[in-house]
TrEMBL record:
The lineage of its organism: Bacteria, Pseudomonadati, Pseudomonadota, Hydrogenophilia, Hydrogenophilia incertae sedis. InterPro entries: AAA+_ATPase (IPR003593), AAA_lid_NorR (IPR058031), CheY-like_superfamily (IPR011006), Homeodomain-like_sf (IPR009057), HTH_Fis (IPR002197), P-loop_NTPase (IPR027417), Sig_transdc_resp-reg_receiver (IPR001789), Sigma_54_int (IPR002078). Keywords: ATP-binding, DNA-binding, Nucleotide-binding, Phosphoprotein, Transcription, Transcription regulation. The keyword DNA-binding applies. This is Sigma-54-dependent Fis family transcriptional regulator.
Length: 485
């Protein structure tokens, strides 16, 4: 939801006329965005905060159900409503299951019906969200239920195992060593880096490596909220503290007692709220809105910013005293283009993750793809790399090696500066059988080494050859860790 209370609806239809009439119907009550294709819609979803998508079934690039199947994985929170001429109930049930579609609207659609349906859908999602929040409040305020929370933390840690930090570059080794030191202390941590570099993932890692790991890790984005709401989210409020405060609310700081609070986009906090945060950091006490009682909370703060705070301090846009307080430890995550050694492992990690999520087998990633990925500057950093890999996995056939033909055009057209000595020749049409077989062998050996992080024994075992045999092949094909492999 936008901070002004407006919900955002994305209308996806290839016909301009339909988009215009749907926009007319909705724009009085909602912020309406439009897309003329599924591809464009996915781009908007990556860029904008969208609450509900209204999509036509028949589109040239993919069907509405296919689009929703993809959006379900990439943006699970968004409500999916399909507009269709379908009448076959079996078809409808199958699609509902496949793409978790909230509702169908049959053509020709009626404005009143459509508006009511959208209103209900958004209301029930909001209720579910509040329910989750209230359950969280209950859990943290009730000792018996708190034990159940240990179970949740365990589940969370298991999820975290899956979402692990992956890296190979010396720069990241350095940052992670510092993060480990930070984890051993109770000092605040400031994580800085461009968008998509993994700041939130790093914050979670610090929490789960710390003695606080059995307690909650709660995150708050400070960017989108006005002061009063942010205050109520973090410090809590008493019933009646302001219009709409119908019950007491436990803030995130008391809810995370014993654990960690992650404050994302800290640079966006207003000067007056900076004072409240500073006070909390100095005294560790919270006073809910509308209450005159303070309560002590033992939480560690991890803050993140994609704008360098030091510069904002110099421009007098961020308080210097708060900056110094926050940077007990300062972790600066370099942009992906400055640590290209991480690209192959991250690409593989992401490809595996998405392949698993859609039940597809991927045989590996071709050298040509890795070379192109290494040339691309990735302004959206790891998130953008993940999106590219998600796309590649989605368009590849089961059991295929991800190759240039699966890449998005912008990346596929990048040409490696030096020729590849025919390394990926088996992917090309030309060459003798011997050359092709050798290229394939080199490719498979390098993939196996990549997969096992250059552990000779494991790669040799997987390939069914001896360690000496593997060493010979590495020499013969001049494979090395820093190369395109
Ligand atoms: N080193 C890494 N290993 C594995 N996955 C990573 C790594 N770094 C980032 N990611 C993945 O990239 C995506 C973006 O990461 P994250 O949300 O932590 O970035 P961020 O810096 O907080 O971005 P933003 O500034 O836009 O909020 C996530 O899906 C995350 O899992
Ligand atoms: Mg983030």
């Amino acid at each position: 939801m936008q901070s002004d209370g407006f919900w955002t609806v994305l209308v996806v239809d290839d016909e301009a006329q339909v988009r215009a009439s749907l926009t007319r119907c909705l724009e009085e009550d909602y912020r309406v965005l439009t897309a003329a294709s599924a591809r464009e819609a996915l781009e908007i979803l990556n860029r904008e905060e969208v609450d509900l998508v209204l999509c036509d079934q028949r589109m040239p690039d993919m069907t509405g159900v296919e689009f929703f199947r993809e959006a379900r994985v990439s943006h699970p929170e968004v409500i999916r409503v399909l507009i269709t001429g379908y009448t076959d109930p079996d078809d409808i049930i199958r699609s509902i299951n496949e793409a978790a579609i909230y509702q169908f609207v049959s053509k020709p659609w009626q404005p009143d019906h459509l508006l009511l349906l959208i209103k209900r859908a958004l209301e029930s999602r909001e209720l579910a969200r509040r329910h989750r929040y209230l359950s969280r409040e209950l859990k943290f305020s009730d000792d018996v239920l708190r034990r159940q929370n240990d179970h949740m933390v365990k589940l969370l840690q298991d999820t975290y195992e899956f979402d692990k930090l992956v890296f190979a570059s010396d720069k990241m080794v350095e940052v992670c060593n510092l993060a480990r030191q930070a984890a051993a202390t109770d000092l605040p941590v400031l994580i800085q880096g461009e968008t998509g570099t993994g700041k939130e993932l790093m914050a979670r890692a610090v929490h789960f490596f710390s003695a606080r790991k059995a307690f909650p890790f709660l995150a708050q984005n400070c960017g989108a909220l006005p002061d009063e709401l942010l205050h109520s989210e973090l410090f809590g409020h008493k019933r009646g503290a302001f219009t709409g405060a119908i019950s007491d609310r436990l803030g995130l700081f008391p809810a995370a007692d014993g654990g960690t609070v992650f404050l994302d986009e800290i640079s966006e906090v207003s000067p007056s709220f900076q004072v409240s945060l500073l006070r909390f950091l100095q005294e560790g006490e919270v006073k809910p809105l509308g209450s005159d009682q303070t309560r002590h909370c033992n939480v560690r703060i991890i803050a993140a910013s994609n704008r360098p705070l030091k510069e904002l301090v110099e421009q007098k846009k961020f308080r210097q005293d708060l900056y110094y307080r926050l940077r007990g430890f300062e972790l600066n995550i370099p942009p992906l283009r400055e640590r290209v050694e991480d690209i192959p492992v991250l690409a593989e990690h992401a490809a595996k993750k998405y392949a698993k999520s859609i039940n597809r087998n991927i045989a590996g990633i071709s050298n040509e793809v890795l070379q192109r990925l290494k040339l691309y500057p990735f302004p959206g950093n790891v998130r953008e790399l993940e999106n590219e890999m998600r796309r590649m996995v989605a368009v590849a056939e089961d059991g295929e090696i991800l190759s240039v033909k699966h890449m998005s055009p912008e990346l596929a057209k990048l040409l490696p500066a030096k020729p590849d000595n025919g390394r990926a020749a088996f992917l090309l049409e030309k060459g003798t059988l011997k050359e092709k077989v050798e290229a394939l062998e080199m490719h498979l050996v390098s993939q196996s080494l990549l997969k096992h992080k250059w552990n000779y024994s494991r790669a040799a075992r997987e390939l069914g050859i001896s360690r000496v045999g593997l060493a010979n092949k590495i020499k013969r094909y001049k494979l090395d860790k820093s190369g395109a492999q």
